[in-house]
Design brief:
Oligomer: single chain
Mean pLDDT: 94
Number of strands: 30
EC number: 6.2.1.1
Number of helices: 21
Shape: globular
Largest sheet: 7 strands, mixed
Strand order of the largest sheet: 5-4-17-16-18-19-20
Helix content: 25-40%
Radius of gyration: 24 Å
Catalytic activity: acetate + ATP + CoA = acetyl-CoA + AMP + diphosphate
Strand content: 15-25%
Low-confidence stretches: 1-7
Bound molecules: adenosine-5'-monophosphate-propyl ester
Organism: Haloferula helveola
Distance between the termini: 25 Å
Keywords: Acetylation, ATP-binding, Ligase, Magnesium, Metal-binding, Nucleotide-binding
Cofactor: Mg(2+)
């Protein structure tokens, strides 16, 4: 398997949507796509207002857009309650008894929630939160397993105008603490634990540890999922089921301003501190809904399954808000794809008749490695559309997904977007776009994407440059929570009035976008963003470490692996024990996904004369075993020679 961009450059296989697929699709030809796209970028306010009007508003907006870069206001003067579009309108209408969530826990427990039941659960929990003192704009941390209650908690917050911030269950106590402190949350919603590969993830214990050092949190609500004993602090901690006793399942949704904050989601940037990406209500929901409608072409009889975790943006937009706003039936799964074996997903596709399946290239590569015998055991004929997200999909993985999972008949939508963009931005439309393995193809409606060089000139075909978005779109992040200056600097300072994504890309002659990867010090490990600075600061926090530099190395399964170079404090010797200790230390400080794959002890790190670590050289060294790039600013050449020895490859 090669996960290498070179293979992109020679890719010339083209897969056109079948006539049958196109015939029933909302957008069925390239001519139609081009026409709507042109109109939508010529007048984004008009296009998005048309889509937004399909959602439930209590007060219609006066103006679709007010824009003064980088500040966007969408659907100005409009008022809505996001949860009404996702629940009330289905629960009180024709979809009342339609399955909203078909849940399967890792141990095999099953549960179906209809739209009416989900609505009732959200209303009940909104009443619980109100009784706990949760108010509009309060920040609420949600640290849950992948169970329906995670979605219920998010929607209940939305119903009250409270701002949820979901933390992925794989993050550590210290990561929880950082986020709690950054957003000043008063409330935490968690569970005793969740199931992952047959083991319990101790969610409540992690929250307890984080709270030892936190001063803002007043209440913790704990859902009983795994049943192991957990400590409950009197006055602060409450069982979800106890709080719900006798509580009404009715709740009237109050309307909030279209620009009312909906959630904060933390993501890695190029400094050590994660960024609290803030999304607001009307615009975000419009982006989520519209992309579900056109990109997944969701229908009332579809069974949709997105395998992401609600702890990431994909789970927010394509498990909770988008699919529910569409009123689709979806599958939700708690655990690991390989539990009890690599057939789990395919067994579930067969059992529930999944028709739309959305996953990440890293999962696909793991399936390829596990072998074809797993998908071959199951009937996957219910599938009609496949999706990919999180990182560039290498053409080999694309072909396997297409043939082995999609039976050669399902279009694959390779969707490029980010936590910051809120919704899919570059993507094929499945009934129209000719697909080439490895490219996310063309911009979605209303998205004016381009590739620019450093001077701001638009790159020619096949010339690499920086990916930018030249016009506002409704689901764009409005700010980094409590850090407007960082927001401006990170996304809006490269070119006047344009959003810089931080990705390198090129367009081919047909205009398809090929995303190469991050241009900043952010790694993409198994489709998850990880700042090298975060891992470095975790390592330097260990008592034995003097200095650390972290870079990515191409990896067949994870996309990128984490490689750390570490210098130790005087008198301390590197040893296999210390190596293990450092890996675990990073796991404790950030979470298991950040554990370095390789740690090299080094007597010194390559630096410029002004003392900056030259990560570029380290990256080249771990990628190719050699350094050919410019080394003229290197202070001490001996350092590089030593490192080459320490990684076991010589020139
Ligand atoms: O580098 C791009 C990559 O993932 C980054 C965004 O990460 P995150 O905010 O965690 O969101 C992931 C899920 C939307 C992007 O800057 N990326 C995401 N999707 C693709 C991709 N790279 C190439 N192709 C994609 N389809």
């Amino acid at each position: 398997m090669s996960n290498n961009i070179e293979s992109h450059l020679v890719e010339d296989r083209v897969f056109k949507p079948s006539k049958e697929f196109s015939k029933q699709a909302r957008i069925s030809s390239m001519a139609e796509y081009r026409r709507i796209w042109k109109e939508s970028v010529a007048n984004p306010g008009k296009f998005w207002a048309g889509e937004a009007s399909e959602l439930a508003w209590q007060t219609k907006w006066k103006k679709p857009l007010e824009w003064k870069a980088p500040d966007a206001k969408w659907f100005v003067g409009g008022k809505l309650n996001v949860s009404e579009s996702c629940l009330d309108r289905h629960a009180t209408g024709a979809r009342r008894n339609k399955a909203a969530i078909i849940f399967e826990g890792e141990p095999g427990d099953k549960r179906v929630l209809t739209y009416a039941q989900l609505h009732r659960e959200v209303c009940k929990f909104a009443n619980v939160l109100t009784a706990q003192g949760v108010k509009s704009k309060d920040r609420v941390i949600i640290y849950m397993p992948m169970i329906p209650e995670a979605a219920i908690a998010m929607l209940a917050c939305a119903r009250l105008g409270a701002v949820h911030s979901v933390i992925f269950g794989g993050f550590s106590a210290e990561s929880i603490l950082d986020r709690l402190d950054d957003c000043g949350a008063k409330h935490v919603i968690t569970a005793d634990g969740g199931w992952r590969r047959g083991k319990v993830v101790p969610l409540k214990d992690n929250v307890d540890q984080a709270l030892k050092k936190n001063k803002t949190v007043e209440s913790v609500i704990v859902y009983k999922r795994t049943g192991q004993k957990v400590a409950m602090k009197k006055g602060r901690d409450h069982w979800w089921h106890e709080l719900e006793e006798g509580v009404s399942g009715k709740h009237k949704a109050k309307a909030f301003d279209s620009e009312h904050p909906l959630f904060i989601l933390y993501t890695s940037g190029s400094t050590g501190k994660p960024k609290g990406i803030l999304h607001t209500s009307g615009g975000y929901l419009t982006g989520a809904y519209t992309t579900c409608k056109y990109v997944f072409d969701m229908r009332d009889d579809d069974v949709y399954w997105c395998t992401a975790d609600v702890g990431w943006i994909t789970g927010h937009t394509y498990i909770v808000y988008g699919p529910l706003a569409m009123g689709v039936t979806q599958v939700m799964y708690e655990g690991a794809p390989n539990f009890p074996d690599f057939g789990r997903f395919w067994q579930m596709v067969e059992e529930y008749g999944v028709s739309i399946f959305y996953t990440a290239p890293t999962a696909i590569r793991a399936f390829i490695k596990a072998g074809d015998q797993f998908p071959e055991k199951y009937d996957l004929s219910s599938l009609r559309l496949l999706g990919s997200v999180g990182e560039p999909i290498n053409p080999e993985a694309w072909m396997w997904y297409h043939n082995k999972i999609g039976g050669g008949r399902c279009p694959i939508v390779d969707t490029w977007w980010q936590t910051e963009t809120g919704a899919i931005m570059i993507t094929p439309l499945p009934g129209a776009t000719p697909l080439k393995p490895g490219t996310a193809t063309l911009p979605f409606f209303g998205v004016d994407a381009a590739i620019l060089d450093e001077t701001g000139r638009e790159c020619k075909a096949n010339e690499g440059g920086r990916l930018v978005i030249r016009q506002p779109w409704p689901s764009m992040t409005r700010t980094i929570y409590r850090d407007k200056a960082r927001f401006k600097k990170t996304y809006w300072s490269d070119y006047d009035g344009m959003y810089t994504a931080g990705d390198g890309a090129r367009r081919d002659k047909q205009g398809n976008f090929w995303i190469v990867g991050r241009l900043d010090d952010v790694l993409n490990v198994s489709g998850h963003r990880l700042g090298t600075a975060e891992v470095e600061s975790a390592l330097v926090g260990h008592k034995a470490v003097a200095e650390a530099a972290v870079v990515g190395r191409p990896d067949d399964l994870k996309g990128q692996a984490v490689v750390a170079f570490v210098t130790l404090k005087g008198g301390i010797e590197g040893s296999p024990e210390l190596l293990g200790e450092l890996r675990n230390h990073v796991g404790t400080v950030i979470g298991a996904i950040a554990k370095p794959d390789d740690i090299h002890f080094a007597p010194a790190l390559p630096k410029t004369r002004s003392g900056k670590i030259m990560r570029r050289l380290l990256k080249e060294l771990v990628g190719t075993g050699n350094v050919t790039g410019n080394t003229t600013t290197l202070e001490d050449f001996g350092v590089l020679a030593n490192l080459k020895k320490s990684i076991g490859r010589k020139k």
